[in-house]
Design a protein that fits this description.
The complex is a heterodimer of chains A (about 160) and B (about 425). With about 160 residues, chain A is α/β, with parallel strands linked by helices. Helix content of chain A is about 35%, strand content about 20%. In chain A, strand 6 and strand 7 form a beta hairpin. Chain A has one domain (about 1-165): Aconitase, domain 4 (Alpha-Beta Barrel), CATH 3.20.19. In chain A, helix 4 crosses helix 5 (about 90-100). Chain A has helices at about 15-20, 30-35, 45-50, 70-75, 90-100, 105-110, 140-150, 150-164, and strands at about 1-10, 55, 80-85, 100-105, 115-120, 125-130, 130-135. Chain B folds into 2 domains: about 5-260, Aconitase, domain 3 (2-Layer Sandwich); about 270-415, Aconitase, domain 3 (2-Layer Sandwich), CATH 3.30.499. Chain B has 14 helices and 18 strands. Chain B has helices spanning about 5-15, 35-45, 70-85, 100-105, 140-145, 170-185, 200, 205-215, 230-235, 295-300, 300-310, 330-340, 340-345, 400-405; strands at about 25, 30-35, 60, 90-95, 115-120, 130-135, 150-155, 155-165, 190-195, 220-225, 255-260, 270, 280, 290-295, 320-325, 350, 375, 390-395. In chain B, strand 8, helix 6 and strand 9 form a beta-alpha-beta unit. The chains are: A alpha/beta (about 160), B alpha/beta (about 425). The interface between A and B is large, with 39 and 54 residues. Bound molecules: iron/sulfur cluster (SF4). Iron/sulfur cluster binds near residues 99 and 122 of chain B.
Chain lengths: ~160, ~425
């Protein structure tokens, strides 16, 4: 069970505002990436965000570029999860591969208020907020395997080690 | 019941019938990466294998910030060159070649029926040649370097039929902006979109690339246009390998079917700060601009530059406008030079730049200051995309970009 404060944003939050393109080939350190998280959407976010905070957003979160830093920067900013009405497919893949928890629940997004504290029970797929309790669907088993291993790279390293 | 394009492509690859919703692991036919190969090589190193699984499926193009605008970018390129050398990657194109999607097309890697992945969201472009093209992340590309393998969930398919005859001067860009404006940035979320109809088959290959390129801007996993005689005559001299044309069965089942009629289509423009914020140009008429950008993987091809040159011949770029022209590749550059288009543009006051992404992602070569307005032939107008987050980006066709460069403001190009 995790508990965190909500940062709520609107629809179509794109990868350029999550992690600006101008840094994509010059910043390699994930902690430095975290300092630019959401820079063009909410310039105060990166300094004010606390461990286990949760981002809540509308439809099509992460649309735009394939840049993985848009997931990495939130993970290293210690964001615990992103809850959205829907995710772009590239963001969804990048989230899984970097081990950032992504929850799709349009009902919960409508109910959750900016700034409130919510609780998430990942094992049982339940989310508790002021307005009530929401269930979210589990991920396919194949995908859960990647997340359980701690992201794609750890997953592949494990598979390579097993094959040897 | 018949199968859709994606079902057939993956059935062929797997050697067994594959259905929508299944998760499969495949070795892609082509895996493209660009400047981000430096970052990918670091993840590859972390995986800890000592060789690249199959160097020949990889194509690497330096295009995003080329030539390097700063020491950091220069180091980035240096890392990529060393990686290419060390692991024997033959298909490497340095900063003098052009934008990755244009280069892969010109060099004959984009072929019907192939599965092409790229660590770039506009990898959907190859659907114009009847390939399955889709973007993937950096870690996924590092894993392909190490093991060759990537997983996919077979998406639902959606059919978009575009009917009618394009009015004079209206282009593929107007069609795709019109569609995105209608269905929204998530209108095809996660879907494989098959484009068909006489308005699509009438388009040149360059126009089809514009359509497939921007299918990601409506959330699609890939965009597909069935190959025809035009495609084949283009591929004949350049195809790198054999290929097989794959198209959907006539009785395939779609999760959605849409139809558009473009007989009376007006010039379209995507207003700040989302690609689906589309209006006819007449709705934003007379807004003053500071920069006009003609180029990118959407609209930097020969016919786009020809449009600009023929419109601007005998006229001048407005004195308050920087008109930046980026041919999509060196090949386009040479052809445009041989045909005299570049001379015409320069004569009129345009700045002709080197092939590459240019200012498209705000890294260099024409970034925007706060409060500035740019009309761009590219595919994204997100806040901060081309520099300042207080700048405004409008997306439109090469004809609309050129008209604005001449007028100094957004205008219907038919007035010029
Ligand atoms: S031209 Fe722009 S959209 Fe195309 S590959 Fe380059 S940066 Fe991406």
């Amino acid at each position: 069970m995790v508990k965190g404060k909500v940062w709520k944003y609107g629809d179509d939050i794109n990868t350029d505002v999550i992690f600006p393109g101008k840094y994509t080939y010059t910043i390699h350190d994930p902690n430095e990436m975290a300092q630019h998280a959401l820079e063009d959407l909410d310039p105060g976010f990166a300094t004010a965000v606390r461990k286990d905070d949760i981002i809540v957003a509308g439809k099509n979160f992460g649309c735009g570029s394939s840049r993985e830093q848009a997931a990495t920067c939130l993970k290293f900013a210690k964001v615990r999860a992103v809850i959205a009405k829907s995710f772009s497919r590239l963001y969804f893949r990048n989230g899984i591969n970097t081990g950032l928890a992504l929850i799709q629940s349009p009902e919960a997004v409508d109910a959750i208020e900016n700034g409130e504290e919510i609780e998430i029970d990942f094992d049982r797929g339940i989310l508790y907020c002021k307005a009530g309790t929401f269930n979210f669907p589990p991920l396919p088993e194949f995908v859960l395997g990647i997340i359980e291993d701690g992201g794609l790279i750890a997953h592949v390293k494990k598979k390579i080690a097993q094959a040897k | 019941m018949g199968k859709t394009f994606v079902e057939k492509v993956f059935s062929k690859k797997m050697g067994r019938p594959i259905k929508t919703g299944e998760i499969v692991e495949v070795i892609p036919d082509i895996a493209m990466s660009h400047d981000n190969t430096a970052a990918i090589s670091m993840i590859f190193r972390e995986i800890g294998v000592d060789k690249v699984f199959n160097p020949d499926i990889h194509v690497i193009v330096l295009d995003h910030a080329s030539p390097a605008p700063s020491e950091k970018y220069a180091l980035n390129h240096k890392i990529v060159r060393a990686f290419v050398e060390k692991y024997g990657i033959k298909n490497f194109y340095d900063v003098n070649k052009g934008i990755c999607h244009q280069v892969l097309s010109e060099e004959g890697f984009a072929l019907p029926g192939k599965i092409i992945v790229g660590s770039d969201s506009h990898t959907t472009t190859y659907g114009a040649y009847g390939a399955f093209g889709t973007g993937i992340g950096r870690s996924e590309m590092a894993v392909i370097f190490a093991t060759g393998i990537i997983w996919f969930k077979i998406p639902e398919s959606m059919k978009i039929t575009v009917k009618g005859k394009l009015p004079e001067g209206i282009s593929a860009k107007d069609i795709i902006l019109h569609i995105i404006g209608n269905i929204g940035s998530d209108g095809a979320l996660y879907k494989s979109v098959e484009f068909c109809g006489d308005a699509i088959t009438d388009l040149s290959i360059a126009g089809r690339m514009t359509i497939a390129n921007m299918s990601i801007e409506m959330g699609a996993k890939n965009g597909f246009i069935a190959p025809d005689k035009k495609t084949l005559s283009r591929l004949e001299p350049r195809a790198k390998t054999d290929f097989e044309i794959i198209r959907a069965d006539p009785d395939a089942e779609y999760a959605g079917e849409l139809e558009f009629d473009i007989n009376n289509l007006e010039p379209q423009i995507a207003c700040p700060h989302t690609v689906d914020n589309v209006a006819p140009v007449s709705a934003v008429n007379r807004k003053k601009i500071n920069q006009a950008f003609l180029g990118s993987c959407v609209n930097g091809r020969l016919e786009d530059i020809e449009t600009a040159a023929s419109m601007i011949r005998g006229k001048k770029v407005n004195k308050n406008v920087r008109f930046l022209v980026f041919p999509a590749s060196m090949k386009v550059w040479q052809e445009a030079m041989a045909k005299g288009y570049l001379a015409t543009l320069i004569e009129a006051g345009a700045i002709v730049m080197n092939p590459g992404c240019g200012p498209c992602l705000g890294a260099h070569e024409g970034t925007l200051a706060p409060g500035e307005v740019c009309i761009s032939s590219s595919n994204r107008n997100f806040k901060g995309r081309m520099g300042s987050r207080e700048a405004e980006i409008y997306l439109a066709s090469p004809a609309s970009v050129t008209a604005a460069a001449i007028a100094g403001k957004l205008v219907d190009f038919r007035e010029i």
